[in-house]
Amino acid sequence: xxxxxxxxxxxxxxxxxxxxxxxxYVVPILAIVAYVYAREVxxxxxxxxxxxxxxxxxxxxxxxFNETWNGWVFHLSKRSAVxxxxxxxxxxxxxxxxxxxxxxxxxxxxxxxxxxxxxKERKILGMPNRWFMAVFFACFCVLVEVLLxxxxxxVWEYPWWNRSFAGIWLIFLLGYFYWFAAANLVLGLKSxxxxxxxxxxxxxxxxxxxxxxxxxxxxY
Length: 220
What we know:
This protein is mostly helical. The chain contains seven helices and six strands; from the N terminus they run H-H-H-E-E-E-H-E-E-H-E-H-H.
């Protein structure tokens, strides 16, 4: 396997889940993320509206799923994941996922929720505001990815997932848009029980895939 790996893949395997690479700045960032969630939980308890946390969990769960199937591509191709993050990091969780990305996407769903208009029927540029914001956030995330790719912090290996017109559309749709679409769909459910079931299902798939990968000895 090692002989066929791309240079970015070899670099991404260096320090994979090596706790000696952890930097001190992870601790205060973890505290900030924990504080934000603690404030959200307190607010949800007070209002009885748990939608902010459901949105955050759905968005992060979709990212977890993306990183999992990306790891499977790495193992099965014996060459490269669809994307790798071979640069410096305080902790590399998977070949395409690091602690900095995790912190970012733990907060992204909350940012998304609080960017939505209170009236879900209100439109922006003729589009229901929730779907307008889903498109906007997905486009913004793609822009950030492009900048990271230009800086060689995020490496794209395959011709169908790159800065070409078709590649950008695929990154938009499969990389991000469906995250916010899933969040919108969960927000539209009537009961808390239904929201819990759908959110749990989103996590169940990547959890099962990672457990299977562990049993089979995958390394990603």
